Amino acid sequence: MADRMRHEQASPAVQKRVQDSFDLQGLMSHLGARINHIGPGRVHIVLPARPAVTQQHGYIHAGAVSAGGCAALTLFDEESEVLTVEYEINLFAPAADDHLEAIGTVLKPGRTLTVCRLEANGLQTDGVRELVANGQQALIRVNRTAG
User: In this predicted model, what pLDDT tens digit does every residue of 102-120 receive, in sequence order?
Assistant: First the structure.
């Protein structure tokens, strides 16, 4: 089941809603992040390495990208948004790669709280992938505000 979910695409309406929400996040635009997969309960976000997203040692900053909120949003109705209420991350290795790929996967959706697994991989242009971090995120569902 997990392998099927890894490649399954969300409906076009859900993809548009998640992409529109992502596009409203000024930080993601500023960082140069982009979504490259939207599936039911699963989203992949890619961040190219460049000086503006690094910390003092030249590695991609650990707080740069999380895909959990977008993953949760794929399972909610169009009147809902999400806010993070808890975030835990374990850093295994510096992200010294060409790109960082953040993957958010919903573990337990709920009416109020949703829990997501987080994974971050460093990606080289030759296709080599290294797990650099994992974690968990809890999100609360909120009503979309008119705007």
Answer: 999 999 999 999 999 999 9
Whole-model pTM: value is 0.88
Q: pLDDT by residue (tens digit) across 44-75?
A: 999 999 988 888 888 888 777 789 999 999 99
> 43: closest CA among 24, 79, 71, 73?
71
Please give the Cα distance from 46 to 11 (Å, whole number): 21
Q: Which two tokens stand for residue 16?
A: 């548009």
The C-alpha angle with vertex 35 and arms to 11 and 104, in degrees rounded to 5, equals: 80
Task: Tell me the C-alpha distance between 118 and 131, whole Å.
Answer: 11
HEC readout, 77-131: CCCEEEEEEEEEEEECCCCCCCEEEEEEEEEECCCCEEEEEEEEEEECCCCCEEE
Closest CA to 76 of 56, 46, 106, 118: 106
- Asked whether 18 and 38 are in contact (CB, 8 A), the reply is yes
Q: Which residues pair with 142 in a beta bridge?
A: 81
